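Section 3.1: Structural characterization of target chains.
Under the original work plan, the team committed to producing a structural model for every single-chain target entering the pipeline before any wet-lab resources were allocated. The record below documents one such target. The sequence was received from the expression subgroup and is listed exactly as submitted; it comprises 186 residues.
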Amino acid sequence: MFFKGQGAFEYMLSYGWAILIVVVLGILLFSLGVLNPTQTPAATGFTTLKPVSWSFSGGNEHGSNVTIALENVVGQSLSMYVNDTSKGSIKFKKGNSLDCYFNASSGITIKDSTGNTISITNNKIAVPVGGIITITGFIDGNGNGTANSNCGGIVNAGYRYSVQVVAEDEYLVTRKDTGTITGKFV
């Protein structure tokens, strides 16, 4: 009798740990969004130019149409790099994708909060204190139409992009702001 009880105890102990590890890994993957493809839109980690609204639509697995509205939440005017990959520009990265930038050849539209088009000067745009700018364009690998860049997705699929925005303040100090945005492709 004693040996049967010991065998049952060892069986429960061995498989109990394995089951516990699988449950913990499942919870971890779900909280990271891997098992939760219908993520609600959220932005975390931004301190300089904060996303207030965004949409990823159309495109394919290599690229996507993007509209993103950014608000200047620091107490001074900024000059944001838009399409200068040597300076950092605005960069998107999804999982194991290449760095994804706005493709200048497909056209980039930048507007202020009143709907007026903002012109790009020396690959930068001015963002006043408390100002909101909206950038619309197509992103792909290195902003040059690179195939197999994994910068896009399919309709209703969830996404999680790491976003980096590079700007200069009025004292010409470079500010790199990084955060994460999540949501669903439309």
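Residues 20 and 70 are 42 Å apart (CA to CA).
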